Amino acid sequence: xxxxxxxxxxxxxxxxxxxxxxxxxxxxxxxxxxxxxxxxxxxxxxxxxxxxxxxxxxxxxxxxxxxxxxxxxxxxxxxxxxxxxxxxxxxxxxxxxxxxxxxxxxxxxxxxxxxxxxxxxxxxxxxxxxxxxxxxxxxxxxxxxxxxxxxxxxxxxxxxxxxxxxxxxxxxxxxxxxxxxxxxxxxxxxxxxxxxxxxxxxxxxxxxxxxxxxxxxxxxxxxxxxxxxxxxxxxxxxxxxxxxxxxxxxxxxxxxxxxxxxxxxxxxxxxxxxxxxxxxxxxxxxxxxxxxxxxxxxxxxxxxxxxxxxxxxxxxxxxxxxx
Length: 323
Fold this sequence. Notes:
- Helix 4 crosses helix 5.
- It is built from 10 helices and 15 strands.
- Helix 8 links the parallel strand 12 and strand 13.
- The protein is globular and about 60 Å long.
- The longest helix has 16 residues.
- It is of the alpha/beta class and about 325 residues long.
- It folds into 2 domains: about 180 residues, Medium-chain alcohol dehydrogenases, catalytic domain (Quinone Oxidoreductase, Chain A, domain 1, Alpha-Beta Complex); about 130 residues, Rossmann fold (3-Layer(aba) Sandwich).
């Protein structure tokens, strides 16, 4: 099978299209033919190898796994003899924390983070919603979001931010999105009540205060944001750093304002499955839109990485594996 392999850290040029062995499912596994996947900021971080925390996951000196990618939408081609939850021919979408989706095939356990793909969506549209699996647990489980909350999404136009805006609005929050000048109308179209152009205004000094500040982009800090939080407000960050760890530990013991980080991708698979099913309900009820910025074929994945590295994407960057 074809797969995108990298054996050294660096620029997108380290990504190579190669022929590798097609996997064989174990008794409890599914063999999935991947039709679509995504390139995310996490993939870019893992590829570069310049994040110490990322290196602990991918390998300090060399890669533990040589195929990136954590999201997929595709069709079940074969099942192990003990599989009961799915059958051959099922169209599914989901994610894996073990990577390996930038390829034509992958084997996953039947109790992994998989659900039947919404019938109304293409494979590309389904896989593009992967940001929900990060946005939802951050807002719901860590931010304890409620109707009427004032929520600020910093990085509202990215692969996670676009779904954070939509989910927060569905819950009944008043949402402010932060993005660049050229993305203001786009973020408004997602339902944001207010949009701040970070090139012209610093939301931390505007005088507005929020119940939740969700820093999807990892461009700020609890120290900068705490004056923009209400007395029991929560600062959420998706980016692991020594600073956020210290802030989380410190605020867990002192003060009413809290800093939190979560590892949404490492949650138990059954929790992700529940979220995938909830996502499907929202899609079927036309309450959530799949947002695709660009699509690239598998053999142009290096170009997709270059684009993600620019930080200019408005939504998900999708890789079409099967043309």
